[in-house]
Amino acid sequence: MEYLMARRTLVEDRLEEVVERVEPRELSEQLAHTALSGGKRVRPTVAMLACEAAGGDAENAVDFGVGIELVHDASLVVDDIIDRSDVRRGTESAWAEYGYGRAIIASDGMLGEAFELFSSDPRAMEVVAESMIELGMGEASELVATPSNQSEYMELARRKTGALFRAAAELGAIAADADPETIDAFGEYAERVGIAFQIRDDVLDATADPDDLGKPTGQDEEIGRPSIVQVTDLSAEEANELAHKQSDAALAALDRVDAPDSAALDYLRDFAEFVVTREH
């Protein structure tokens, strides 16, 4: 646990630095409301673990990890506006606190700071740009081309959640100066984990206690969001089984990585198993 906490501390410290440098002060405070309100920091952790597993130093991936976290947070601000969700991470969502206009500006501000962090490496810029295209297509599909079967849902999950997970792992491998095959293997691992994460998230929305989850539940059904339990005939148990299959595929992709066993690899394996059993 100390191993992961040390890496999370690197992320939190750098994230605070990035947010505090934003001007004007009012915008910095609005970014802080979302970016510093907690969160699991899953994506930056994946970036650092992938970097270490590929033979690099975790500190080399901190900026990329913080950048992908800011992209994720920016997308959450927009999600909450679309969903009219007034709670995020146990506190008021950005639009509920500041109004729509300022929330959108805060989202833009986070994206700007993120790309500043990626700008040191053209490969990182390309990876993130591709992931944001996928994310945008996923968001659009959710609104105007709602999935109606399992296959379409899986493609949505790949774009909406898997794409940023893939970017996080690929950024970590890039920070370690890994070869293209290794970068791709880490990317596939993370994409599969992201899909499993989204499936489990859908199940929790349908079955979890809102206090335990830190946000309202039943939102998917209430607003017609295409969750796995809404667009298929799968029960919660069957959906969890599907998530487990994605987790197994993630582990298979990780096995393609030509790297010695390490604590980082062990944690990546553990994470692929954790995402399908988590309770919040």
Automatic annotation (TrEMBL):
It comes from Haladaptatus paucihalophilus DX253. CDD domains: Trans_IPPS_HT. One of its GO terms (biological process) is isoprenoid biosynthetic process. PROSITE patterns: POLYPRENYL_SYNTHASE_1 (PS00723), POLYPRENYL_SYNTHASE_2 (PS00444). InterPro entries: Isoprenoid_synthase_dom_sf (IPR008949), Polyprenyl_synt (IPR000092), Polyprenyl_synt_CS (IPR033749). Keywords: Isoprene biosynthesis, Magnesium, Metal-binding, Transferase. It comes from the Archaea. GO terms for molecular function: metal ion binding; prenyltransferase activity. Pfam families: polyprenyl_synt. Its cofactor is Mg(2+). Belongs to the FPP/GGPP synthase family. This is Farnesyl-diphosphate synthase.
